[in-house]
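Database export, one record per block. Field names are fixed; values are copied verbatim from the stored entry.
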Amino acid sequence: MSVIGWIQILLYCAIVIALVPWLGGYMTRVFNGERTLLSPLLRPVEAMLYAVGGVDERREQHWVTYTVAMLFFHVAGFLILYALLRFWEASSSTAETLALHDVARQPGSPGRLFKIDESSLVERLEGVEKLTEGRLSYGETAGLRQLYRRKRIDPNEVLADAYAMGARPR
C-alpha cells in the first residue's frame, strides 16, 4: 500500500475518533428522549409519523407485538416469492431467466400485484438465493437485471415451507 493510502486511513480514523464524543452524546440524548439541536426541526416530523402509525411513544413495544410485526414482514417475503413463481410459470414456464422489468411491470407480476417498484423488488430479490437454497438467484450483468432459475420450484412448496416455519415449536 502506498504512503498516501496509509495517510488516508489514518486521517479517516482520526476523524472518526474526533466525532465519537459529539455523535455519541447526540445519540444518547436522542435515545433518552432529551432535547437536541435538531429537535425543533425533526420533532414535528417524528410526532406526525407516530400519529400516522398509531404509535404511543411513551409505551414500550411488547415483545408479542414485535414478534407479530416480524412474522408479517417474513410472510410478506414468502407471498412475494409465491407470486413470483406463479407469474414465472404463467408467463414463461420454460425460461431459465426472467427480467426484473417483467417482474415489476408486466400484468399479473408481483410488482403490479403488490404495487412494488423495481428498487424495492431488488431489495427483496437479493435474498431470494438464500430463501430458495440456491434454486433461484438475482443478478445484474451488463446492465440487465434478472432472476436465474437453477432448479424449478413448485409455488405450493413455498407455501408449505412458510407454514412449516410458523408451526415449528418454540
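Remark 1: Helices lie at 3-31, 39-53, 63-92, 100-105, 110-114, 118-125, 128-131, 155-167.
Remark 2: The chain has two domains: 3-53, 63-167.
End of record.
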